[in-house]
Write a structure and sequence with these properties.
elongated; 4-stranded antiparallel β-sheet; Aminopeptidase; 11 strands; Alpha-Beta Plaits
């Protein structure tokens, strides 16, 4: 089977993918489509803060080891890290134990997600996050344990195809914009095998993975025109001449 797969791979010149943006960038600039630079890398971690459960009424503020406060400091600090490095940071889940208003949380579990297209920036974001969660734990007299859940390296798309996609979007739809994909797509896997690129169409309100997900029909038509132009050029001329 692997031999057959290698044979099929040899016949592939490129991988092209058309997808909705799943974000607000194109709509904010009143553009129907854009060329995609690549898919971001991901650092996802679970943090567990251990403090001391205590009565919320009779424990003075300066005598607490509040795991919930330590986790909250990470939540707010992550926003600054994302902005500072031009990436995105998300605290997606926070569980407090014992989870009642009459007890100071003795344990907090936090799931965080960091993404960036540039590997150096992604590494810097993670380094800043590590410093943040260490200082947050120490400041609240809590221990912290961190576990890496998911690590994906950034996947830049083929520069020749990105330029070809940009030109196709410009000529077919009047869009001269490149942007990164904050979501992961099939193209990220295919890029490990063959030259790859994506074209995004706009997402109404930047909404995705929700019942409100939509794209204006006119934007879809222009994105299809651009994608079709890109595909015809790559088929006719190959990857290197795809922007001709």
């Amino acid at each position: 089977m692997s031999g057959a797969g290698e044979g099929r791979r040899d016949r592939l010149a490129a991988y092209l993918e058309l997808h909705i943006e799943q974000g607000p960038v194109l709509e904010a600039q009143r553009l129907p489509c854009g060329a995609v630079l690549g898919c971001v890398g991901v650092e996802r971690h679970r943090l567990v803060f251990e403090g001391r459960t205590a009565h919320s009424g009779s424990t003075p503020m300066d005598r607490r080891s509040d795991a919930g406060v330590a986790a909250a400091r990470v939540v707010t600090g992550l926003q600054d890290i994302g902005i500072r490095h031009g990436g995105v940071c998300t605290a997606g889940r926070l569980d407090l134990d014992p989870g009642i208003v009459t007890a100071v949380p003795g344990r907090a579990e936090l799931l965080i997600d960091q993404r960036h297209l540039d590997p150096g920036a992604l590494a810097a974001m993670l380094a800043d996050a590590r410093s943040l969660w260490s200082s947050a734990g120490a400041g609240e007299r809590c221990t912290v344990e961190a576990q890496a859940l998911w690590r994906i390296a950034p996947t830049p798309f083929d520069e020749r195809l990105v330029e070809a996609a940009r030109r196709a979007c410009s000529e077919a739809a009047g869009c001269d914009l490149t942007l990164s994909s904050g979501a992961l797509h099939d193209a990220a896997q295919m890029a490990l095998l063959v030259p790859s690129v994506m074209v995004f169409s706009s997402s109404s309100g930047g909404v995705s993975h929700a019942v409100e997900e939509d794209t204006p029909e006119a934007d879809l038509e222009l994105a299809l025109e651009a994608f079709g132009l890109l595909a015809r050029r790559v088929i006719a001329n190959g990857v290197g001449a795809g922007s001709a």
